[in-house]
Amino acid sequence: MNYEAALMNVSLLWLLTTPHEFAHAWVATRLGDDTPLLEGRVTLNPLPHVDWLGTVILPAVMSLMGGGLIGWGKPVNTNPGKIRGGWNGVAVVAMAGPLSNVVFAVILGLLAAATAKMSPGFALYAARGVSLSLYLAMLNMIPVPPLDGSKLLLAARIPAFIYREIAQFGFLLVLLLVSYTNVGYQMSAWSIQGTERILGLFQ
């Protein structure tokens, strides 16, 4: 039972889901959909973006058990009919989330480097945030509903009935991929490599 990892992962997920979901909401609004604005999602306040199962409970359990890590924030509702560009616009909104994770990873890397001597504990926490942010970016790019990468299937004009069939088992598929295949391990390895490169930029 790794309680330290669980506490760190849950607190970082809470932090990282906020810019991720905000990015979805902001880009959707810029593309003409006022749904996120009306529902109060165009904000950097963490509370409207938290999903207690995906942001707290499941990540804590998986961290405690030493398995792969899956986490998410409260999904941002959008109206595809209002988004300029149709399904292509929907894909742009979806990609804003993983992109925000990469940008935030760079910001955390800068903070880790800047505080390495003054506050090693915080620097270590920020460095872990870099790794987790990159991991979440890769996780969300998996083209399986409800992950952001699945919207690329819609932009590629995959038949709707196929998308719906995949979506019925999407969560189970992602859970199996991360926990029982090499996918979760490989994403972790790539996130560590990415962290080393980002930190190297500021050393």
Q: What does this entry look like structurally?
A:
This protein is mainly α and 203 residues long. The protein has one domain (3-202). 69% of the residues lie in helices and 0% in strands. α1 (3-30) runs antiparallel to α3, α4 (86-114) crosses α9 and α8 (170-180) crosses α9. The two termini are 34 Å apart.
Outline the fold blueprint.
Blueprint (H helix, E strand, L loop, with lengths): L2 H28 L4 H4 L13 H13 L21 H29 L5 H21 L10 H5 L4 H9 L1 H11 L1 H21 L1
Helix pairs in contact: 1-3, 1-4, 1-5, 4-5, 4-9, 5-9, 8-9
- How much beta, percentage-wise? under 5%
Number of helices: 9
Q: State the share of residues found in helices, binned by percent.
A: 55-70%
Helices and strands, in N-to-C order?
Answer: HHHHHHHHH
Radius of gyration: 17 Å
Q: How many β-strands, per DSSP?
A: 0
Low-confidence stretches: none
Mean pLDDT: 91
Profile the largest sheet. none
Question: How far is the first residue's CA from the last residue's CA?
Answer: 34 Å
Number of domains: 1
Overall geometry comes to globular
Q: Quickly give the structural class.
A: mainly alpha
